[in-house]
Amino acid sequence: MRLDTRDLTKKAAQDLEKAKHAIALTGAGISTESGIPDFRGPSGIWTKDPEAEKRAYQRYERFLEDPKGYWEERLSAPALLGDLDKAKPNPGHCALAELENMGILKCLITQNIDGLHEKAGSRNLIEYHGSYLKLRCTKCGSRSPIKEMDLEKLKEEEKLPPLCKCGGVIKSDVVHFGEPIPVDGARNSQEQAWKCDLMLICGTSAAVYPFAQLPRLAKKHLIEKEIKTESGLYVVKQVPFTTIIEVNAEPTPLTEAGISDYLIQGKTGEILPQIVDELVKSPISPPLAGGD
Predict the structure, then answer these.
(1) What φ, ψ does residue 139 adopt, rounded to 5°?
(2) Which residues of 222-233 are buried (b: 16+ CB within 10 A; e: fewer)?
(3) Cα–Cα distance, 100 to 31 (Å, whole number)
(4) Of these residues, 21, 93, 117, 129, which one is catalytic?
(5) Catalytic annotation present for 21
(6) Which of 99, 109, 107, 148 is nearest to 130 (CA)?
(7) CA 216 from chain center: how many Å?
(8) φ, ψ for residue 4 (rounded to 5)?
(9) CB 3.0–4.6 Å: which of 56, 130, 168, 285 could bond 164 by disulfide?
(10) What is the rounded CA–CA span in Å between residue 204 and residue 25?
(11) 165 and 259 share a domain?
């Protein structure tokens, strides 16, 4: 029997309630509902402007060759994703923050650079591709809020590129094409993917690597479980440790390859609040915030 969206939403709530270490992964699909364009969709930035994609692939090399020129271009060019300062979290972002507040969601790993999960109140957050709200030193790896540095003044005073206290060159925290994922984010994400017993994947095509490897890593975590056969005998089999749930508008490679256990098809801003509502109605109280 095929379950409908309502039944799958209830099942997701039940699975989350049973989980001891649930995490979430998010991608551009959750932010498009806040009016932020994606890159490769039908109306994506690069779909409309292929030259913009070419420039994006050259940005990190530009930084390495000429940090000053990189910053001058960045400060003079229009923002690729529009005015992110005006963007607001949508119900999907808020639902994930509420799941964390309820003590159910232990960590959120996002591909998005828009800072909306932080604005929504998510605290245990790994921004896999960085954040437009932050700067990062390429030498010591330290991060700081972008508002703490007057970049325009540095430009006027011919003091670009900005430098860290350690002497390293500072760049945007956003990870460009060809740039390695920062070690701390990559390591922590892999640890969370291996540790989790439930992974909620929201609004991502699961096509951009190495981020897309995280669900596959979780799927490889097997445990031994005693299973009753049709003959009534019990046998010990290796089964996946992690339940993987997708909330996506369309099936993804994870769906097609059987990496996810089930797909709830629809908008994250509609499905995720419904899951929270099911948990709130549940007769079993969720664990205290901060529990593990």
Answers:
(1) -100, -55
(2) eeeeeeeeeeee
(3) 19
(4) 129
(5) no
(6) 109
(7) 15
(8) -85, 180
(9) 168
(10) 8
(11) no
- Cis ω before 210 (30° cut-off from 0): yes
Strand order in the sheet with 243-248: 125-127, 105-110, 22-26, 198-202, 243-248, 262-265
Does pTM top 0.70 for this prediction?
yes
- The pLDDT tens digits for 131-178 are 999 999 999 999 999 999 999 999 999 999 999 999 999 999 999 989
Q: At 128, give phi and psi (nearest 5°).
A: -60, -40
Number of domains in the chain: 2
Calculate the alpha carbon distances from 36 to 31, 32, 86, 88, 116 in Å: 6, 5, 10, 10, 10
Q: Which domain holds residue 110?
A: 1-36+89-131+181-283
3-state secondary structure of 59: helix
On whether residue 292 sits in a domain, the answer given is no
What parts of the chain have a pLDDT lower than 50?
A: 1, 285-292
